[in-house]
Amino acid sequence: MEDLLYQFMNNFAFLILSAIGLAVIFGMMKIINLAHGEFIMLGAYIATLATKAGIPLLLSILLSVVGVGIFGLIVDRLIISRLYGRTLDSVVVTWGVSLVMQQGILILFGPSLETLSTPLGSISIGGSDYSLYRILLFVTAIVLLILLYLLFTKTTFGLHSRAAMQNAEIARSMGVNTNRIYSFTFSIGAALAGLTGALYAPTMAVSPTFGGGFLMPSFVTVIVGGANPLIGPSLSGGVLGVVSTGLDATWGTFFGRLGLLVVAILVIRIMPLGFSGLVEKLSVRKSRG
Amino acid sequence: MLLTADRVFSGYGKVDIVRSVSITVNEGEIVSIIGRNGVGKSTFVKTVMGLLPAHSGSIRFQEQDVTRSKANDRARQGMGYVPQGHGVFPTLTVEENLMMGTQINKKKPSMNLLTIYDYFPKLKERKRQKAGTLSGGEQAALAIGRALAGYPELLILDEPSEGIQPSIIHQISEMIRKINRELGITILFVEQHMGMIQELSERCYAMDKGVIVGEVGGEDLHNYDRLKSYLTV
Ligand SMILES: Nc1ncnc2c1ncn2[C@@H]1O[C@H](COP(=O)(O)OP(=O)(O)OP(=O)(O)O)[C@@H](O)[C@H]1O
Ligand SMILES: [Mg+2]
Asked: Domain ABC transporter: where (chain B) (predicted)?
């Protein structure tokens, strides 16, 4: 039982942390960032290189967040800002960005970096060992969801960005500089990807294709979750976490991954707007009644 | 002169829908733009607000040329806008919609939400409700209240009577007049509803096929048949 819970925490954290940057950018801007995996990879590189240079891991992680955030801002100003509202074009263009980033990193740092060791060791409960670091990742994922919830519901930036998401033209007529909101949002999404990369850098091999492993789970989580960048991933992370944990435990990781895709296809058939679409429908009904 | 549009051409893409439209609005006035469906009324007021670029011509607001400035800058300079269909943010609560209006105008402190609730008590009762669940009349009130919260110098309303039952149209008219009288806010509104046009306008421009075809003021505003001729095919 503890094993399953631990596995679930692992899977949940991985899904949430994979998806959150993508979800914020897609949910708020309708931009599909195919370079999301490479933003994660960049975060892993920054954290690994900084740690190797003697900077403490926590500080290295912070450096990744800031670094990828700034990188995202530059990509936004140079490229994405010309594509606001053009979802399909954004797919093609960000795919291009991802290729450039992969090749760029390959040229600069070669095919792989020496991997960091996972910090914090493990604790033993009922005869099994559990990695403390991975438990911490689960806590981080939860804290991140709460912080983002507060950012989007309790701040002026959050209010303006939710308004811009619903109707950008009217938001502008209310004095909101929507372009600035979008730039900032893209940068936040990138910074979150950077955080994810940094957090997972000590747990797996860091190479130019590091982001590949995150891409499928992140997209499945966002698709199943629907447009709302917080409710969506939280719910789909939970459900998909349970599904993949169950399948992992019975038939192994391959079927765990396959299960994610099957759930994604089912959810799209049954509720095209994902979990958050369903929640919004219910909440409107409740507030009307 | 608060607002001057001088030979403005605009439209979607490269096509001109609005052609050489010139109007003026004086401080404190209530001016309407009337005309049939599809003649370009919304296109014109969106151009005034900065949501569509003017292809040529100029727009001056408070003695400044704003032809090239962005909608959000015009809003901060004191233009308030109530879009056609009211345009409330449906999944934001009533209060959040109103909060969007505050802190717009950079020259005046924004209006206290309590003042807005004084004008529209219904909104106070429903402040935690999602705006998308309000009735048409309540959405109109919210859209006006939201624009008001920024304390604009000029309030532009695009067909405020649309989607509202006749008995409430009169209330909305009175509310707009009250806003004009008590707060000194200049009003430019687009309308097709005769009752509202006659009740509210101090001066009226008639538009057809993208051009201004008439200006009606003073006694002529009581001339029902003349106004009606601009609204019927
Ligand atoms: N987004 C758009 N893209 C292209 N053409 C548009 C767009 N919006 C409106 N038009 C066209 O511009 C013309 C004028 O439309 P506009 O909305 O300004 O008319 P209107 O006078 O406000 O009509 P109504 O009283 O029905 O609101 C119409 O022929 C319309 O089809
Ligand atoms: Mg119109």
From this structure: 2-231
